[in-house]
């Protein structure tokens, strides 16, 4: 993605060979971790121009999306109109979500923490709005891989986006979610191929093989956790 994240940059990424393959791999993993969505209340935090919200709505979920950037919300709403879906998009901060406690069965947050100023507050808010027994799925940029190395280099060379970005290990994400009172159920990496179109085409079909053994080397790490029932088993 470019050094200034806009709806146009997202669209160009999806239209590229590398972007389309990579986004599909990440989307498939997050949705698999989210579980059955039909009829469930789903919130996409840091929704951008709506890719994950749209995918959840197409699976029958009752979806809301929040992003701090008004231009992202406008782009997401335009995509909803194109597909004749019904999604409640709102401008808002991940650190102060505009919803009551326990409002959602599933909360998704993808590449939110890497660029946010307060990851702890964002995850705590995700946990707050998740109903008892509900699920939180966080997808983030992995720390130890060729993609992160390339992005760090771009940051050192002056990119404002990648200079400020955080890259995460699986253990760091687990600790963050446990600290918000969530119980971690599953951790998995994805995108083990280098950031090159040919590598993506050749290696994406076997990307799940290294994911069976380690998250190291994966450019994307997803963690699924649940909100424990009050007074019940964790």
Overall form: globular
Strand order of the largest sheet: 3-2-1-4-5-7-6
CATH class membership:
Alpha Beta
Alpha plus pi helix count? 10
Which architecture would the CATH scheme give at its second level?
Answer: 3-Layer(aba) Sandwich
The structural domain count equals: 1
The proportion of strand residues reads 15-25%
> What oligomeric state do these chains adopt?
single chain
Give a nutshell description of this structure.
This protein has 234 residues and is of the alpha/beta class.
Question: How is this fold's topology laid out?
Answer:
Layout: H1 7-15, H2 17-34, E1 41-45, H3 51-58, E2 62-67, H4 70-83, E3 88-91, E4 104-110, H5 119-128, E5 130-141, H6 146-156, H7 160-164, H8 170-179, E6 183-190, H9 197-203, H10 208-211, E7 220-226
Parallel strand pairs: 1-2, 1-4, 2-3, 4-5
Antiparallel strand pairs: 5-7, 6-7
Q: If you had to describe this structure to a student in words, what would you say it looks like?
A:
The chain is of the alpha/beta class and 234 residues long. The chain has one domain: Vaccinia Virus protein VP39 (Rossmann fold). Helix content is 41%, strand content 21%. The protein has helices at residues 7-15, 17-34, 51-58, 70-83, 119-128, 146-156, 160-164, 170-179, 197-203, 208-211; strands at residues 41-45, 62-67, 88-91, 104-110, 130-141, 183-190, 220-226. Strands 3-2-1-4-5-7-6 form a seven-stranded mixed β-sheet, with helices on both faces. Helix 3 (51-58) links the parallel strand 1 (41-45) and strand 2. The mean pLDDT is 95.
